[in-house]
Amino acid sequence: MEKLTFGWEEWVSLPDLGLPAMKAKVDTGARTSALHAHDIEVFGSAKNPKVRFNVHPIAGREDMAITCSAPLVDRREVTSSNGEAEQRYVISSTLAVNGQSWPIEITLTNRAGMSSRMLLGRQALSDHISISPTERHLQPELSYDDYHSSALKRRAPKRALRIAVLSREDNYSTRRLTEVGEARGHVVEVIDTTRCYMAINNLAPEVHYDGKRLPRYDAVIPRIGASITPYGTAVIRQFEAIGTYCVNGSAGITASRDKLHAHQVLATRRIGMPSTAFAASPKDTSNLMALVGTAPLIVKLLESTQGKGVVLAETKKAAESVIDAFRGLRANFLVQDFVKEAAGEDIRCLVIAGKVVAAMKRTGAEGDFRSNLHRGGSAKVVRITREERETAVKAARAFNLGKAGVDLLRSSTGPKVLEVNSSPGFEGIEKASGKDIVGKLYDEIETRVRPQPVRKRKS
What distance in Å separates the CA atoms of residue 88 and residue 111, rounded to the nearest whole number? Predict the structure, then answer.
């Protein structure tokens, strides 16, 4: 390495933490380096602990904070220059100066009263560094403008994230979300939605779980079952109020779960779907059916899932009987045109971040018009048309869903959206397509929670 000379203050960067430019005071009297940090929080397992914290990299700019995380190396007592002892968390990171870099240990502490956001102690000064204590900025000057540039987001490291999966089930999808996240170095915690409770106030909204306040999560992945939609979306709204990134928002889940609401949203966006009619208690069943077309017809409960509560009425008489039965149960239902040319098949498009990442054709079990895999249907990968791809993306976007399963029917007049599922399973489509769908979801999460460019303050 080329020998470097440091003055008493130098520009440095910490690329592992996403901090491209910082002023550091060089203090050979101090053994350990220190970084100004706040909101320090330990997470992860006892065998592999991590620490997350926020850094104000520019003195006097409390409006700008960069969230960092790093493996936790130690916790030790450090005595400051004024003789005060403090227990500090210790991390390891890379220090970069003038094209050279090397690993150093850093303690995390509050340096709010210091002009330098960082202190470099003896341990950080390698053998090839000499000190000129009467000078400063002997190494190339860096720019705080890097914090305002879109390049900050592109260059930001893939730091360890703390992620909550809201799920009550130990199934393939939940296990995959946990396994893939942990394989990427993140900490993934599965939270039973029904065991969450909320402290609702205007200053500090909180979510509690099993007697404790839940920590700040970088992201929440909702997998809310249909039976607990109202409570589950209330929990998600609470995370949204805190400012946590939720892959699917509460409003989109609520709208997609109510089939009447969902079809109204699709109609508003002029997205193709089967002709649909709804009434609370029509006196004239024949008129209701006439709004849709002739038999055969589909009669569907508003909150049906996995093909349950969906009936094919092959004749007008059969449709009248089913409608009368549902009405007798005071159940809310839709009447839809049956797309004959679909022939018991539909296409499930998995949309993540506005892109169709996989598609499969689902075929119903013999004698069953429903193609749901939960009801014995089969699936195989399928090539979709440009129109089908655009329709699926448009449908997911209509509900502002970061991940969605969009079910399409192939009709003689183009693709028809049958349903937009806000909690699609991953097993069928991963096995059919051979793609790492969960990995693509984590790609989007990692992108969304990286440091965001900060606008310059107006002068």
Answer: 13
